[in-house]
Specification:
152 residues, alpha+beta, 2 domains, three-stranded antiparallel sheet
């Protein structure tokens, strides 16, 4: 609700089928200012084997409604980073961070031989070294080329 605070959802009436199973329906409306988009989603009430339950109890129906809401949210792509294997965004990600300082040439000269040894031993790749240094510093194009050249 942080990004779309005017969004709403509605639990629609459950649909009872002839075999005694039940479908839960949810309607989700995501609003951004004057614009809004609505999606409906359904999900059968299922057991632990992902088989439709006959005559489900209220707990099973409630769980299905919440899973259905999560599925509706996913239809908008919201929360996609979770399924894409990315970390959850932190508050720090939403704020502008100060630019990273340039990696000092004297540190580069000091570390280059140990990095080369790690690469030759197969313990690290040039990309590993670049990623490690880039967490705290900005590497110049020349420094990047030097590190990449250690694998040759």
């Amino acid at each position: 609700m942080q990004y779309y605070p005017n969004s709403t959802y509605e639990i629609l009436p459950d649909v009872s089928l002839a075999d005694g199973s039940v479908e839960c329906w949810v309607k989700l409306t995501v609003s951004d200012g004057e614009q809004s988009l609505t999606r409906k989603m359904w999900l059968p009430v299922m057991d632990f084997r992902n088989q439709a339950m006959t005559n489900p109890n209220s707990v099973a129906i409630n769980k299905t409604r919440m899973r259905c809401l999560a599925k509706a949210i996913a239809m908008f792509g919201l929360g996609h980073y979770i399924y894409a294997g990315e970390d959850l965004p932190s508050e720090e990600d939403n704020t502008q961070s100060a630019p990273k300082p340039a990696y000092p040439d004297d540190k580069m000269d000091t570390n280059i031989s140990s990095w080369q040894e790690l690469i030759l031993q197969g313990k690290k790749t040039p990309t590993d070294i670049i990623n490690m240094v880039s967490t705290q510093f900005t590497l110049s194009n020349e420094q990047l080329a030097t590190i990449r050249g250690l694998a040759q």
